[in-house]
Amino acid sequence: MTNKVLDFIANETNGKCYQSFRYCADDEIRMPTLDYEDKGNEFSLVKNSCGETDTSLKTTKSIKETANKIISDAPLFHFFLDGSRRTYKVDDIEINRNVYPVIAGQIGVACCQRQSPDKFKNAEFERKLVFSLPNVANSEPSIKAELFFNRLKDKVNNLSTLTKRGIQFDKILSYNSKKQDDGTKYEHLGIATIQDEMIETEKKIVASLYDKGLINANKYLIKDGSLQYKPMKTGDFKELIKIKNHYKSVIGVSKMFNPELCKDKDGKSNADKIADLKLFHRTPVYKYKSEMVGNVYFAIWYVRIREKEHSASPFAGVLKIEKILITDEEIENGLDSQEVDLITANIINERNPVCYGKDDRWANHLYPIYLTETFIKSKYLSDINFLNIF
């Protein structure tokens, strides 16, 4: 019996590996487009509706005075959540005369907790090693694919090449092996399964903090990126409508958002108004709805935290803020405008210090999020070490 990971997998799946060139997929096959954190495919603006209780706000509003007033108060945000993944193409495998890529990945999700103004600690952290195979690799169609791949994972983890190094895989994921009508590449399908696993881990950590009573009305959590989770086919938290209570004290902050999705309450583009936001001004709150995840409503607004002339683009320095509308009153009337101002003021007060020179997204970074992201990446195996596992 072979102890090489890929040869063992080929044997167990009645396949054949080709010892193809291995590389980091994030560097090699990423499309040359901006990687927006909000996709917007399953979410629509609720037209002629306001996302906050103050319906008189028509243009923008300065939050500078509120931010200055609370600067010495205890901060609203105590927890900072970020997820990251690195993906790799490690081989090609032939099954039933078709050739599919084997995609592997490192996933890291962490939540940092603020203990004092200048002291943070790791509240939650999960690192996972995974790889993704085509679902046709299930060589025992009489049993469910999830069970087959779970058994395969256990067998792989027992290989001496892994046990000697103290390395264990957490999951073997599977992607659709049918040819896609829209021409989507198998590599991208495999990467998507790893991305979904990262999102599921983020939801798990939010649920853990909520169940422990650590996040509440006085101790909010910032999640890096959008809360607009797409529907999931599997997982304990696949339906957002069933877990939205976990997000009562959670906001999502997107550093990179798609300007084409920026609409006013009438459904007209207001990308120009967001680009021209004055420093420390916020937009009105807009109400969005997702029928795909069970009629979940979102409050969405934008705030500028850095001067436009010091940044690289009109939208650099602008953050997109999201909060799920939980109660019937919120869904009907929108978020309390005082809460919106308080959240925004605390976001403004999180803007310093900056990671200038360390990250080209510095103008949109909140430092605790940058700190969390840096912590996660410090826990990764180097690309060379990870690729040598296989």
Question: Any overview of this molecule?
Answer:
- The protein is built from twelve helices and 14 strands.
- It has helices spanning 5-12, 25-28, 64-69, 145-157, 160-163, 186-211, 240-243, 271-275, 328-333, 337-349, 367-378, 383-387, and strands spanning 16-17, 23-24, 44-45, 61-62, 77-95, 98-116, 119-134, 171-175, 220-224, 250-254, 281-282, 286-290, 296-304, 318-325.
- Strands 1, 2, 3, 5, 6, 7, 8, 9, 10, 12, 13 and 14 form a twelve-stranded mixed sheet that branches.
- Helix 7 links the parallel strand 9 and strand 10 (250-254).
- It is elongated.
- It starts with a helix and ends with a helix.
- Residues 29-34 have low confidence and may be disordered.
What is the typical, i.e. mean, pLDDT?
88
Overall spatial form: elongated
**Uncertain stretches:** 29-34
Taking the sheet with the most strands, its summary is: 12 strands, mixed
Total domain count: 2
- If you compute it from the alpha carbons, what radius of gyration comes out, rounded to the nearest whole angstrom? 23 Å
Measured distance between first and last alpha carbons: 16 Å
User: How much helical structure, as a percent, in the residues?
Assistant: 25-40%
> How many DSSP-defined strands?
14
- Beta percentage is 25-35%
The run of helices and strands is HEEHEEHEEEHHEHEHEHEEEEHHHH
Total of helices: 12
Structural class: alpha+beta
**Oligomeric grouping of the chains:** single chain
